[in-house]
Structures are given as C-alpha cells and as structure tokens.
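INFO batch 0412 | record 1 of 1 | parsing
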Amino acid sequence: MSTVATLMDTAVADVELLRSLDANGDDFSIPRDVEFLMPGPSAEKASIVAGFINDYQYGLATADQLGEIHRVLVVVHMPIQQHNISCVSGFMACVSLLYGLEYDGWDALLRSASDANLGWITLEVALRCAPTTTRQAKIQG
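INFO prediction complete | emitting tokens
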C-alpha cells in the first residue's frame, strides 16, 4: 500500500474514533496518555522501532510480545484535538510502513471537564494497512 493511501486510511479511522469520543462527551483539549500500537513480524523489528522512537523522544516506546505477535506500544501524553492526533497518528503510520510493521491505530482515555476519567473507549477500527488487527471496544461504567 502506498504511503498516501495509508495516510488517507489512517485519517478516516482517526476521525471515526474522534467522533465516537465526541459523542460520549470527550473534551479533546485535555491532555492524556495516548497509546499507539504497531504489531510486527519479529522481536528484532519491534526492538528497532522502539529504539528509534525512544532515541528521538517521539514518545515512550516498549517492544513486547503477546502470544506469537511482536509489537511496539508507544505512549504519548497529549491532547487529542484533530490537528494534534492526526499528525502523530500519521507519523506512527509512516514509521510502521518504513520499518515493515502494521499500524493498529490509537487508544485514549475518555476525558471530560466533569469527570477526568470516565473509562476506556475505543472504536473497532480495521485499517486497510493492518487488516488482520483491530482495536477492541470497551466502555467501563
């Protein structure tokens, strides 16, 4: 898949997730930890990508393994206004492409002015650049 197609698919998925969060009362301007997930084919690739992200301080990256899947989890403390999250999400998608990983999108805690921690909410998002992986939807009451 081309870089442009990946960025377009990522932008669509990001907007869908933002709409879901907005419908649940999220205040996008409140900073929170945002998790970006990049599954990969090997521990070596995951380690290289985590090292790259940590070396340049793009976020706090850890390489780990879940079953047979190697992955990189990147945490960035930031607001999720569309211009912010679109830039960082697009960057993570490009890093994934450059290093041969998949990009599985992002998760964030729902934040509002009245209750800073309402629970996890994510969309079930299947990006074309990562068709075998999806984000799980869970709202804690």
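INFO post-check: DSSP finds three helices and five strands in the chain.
INFO record closed
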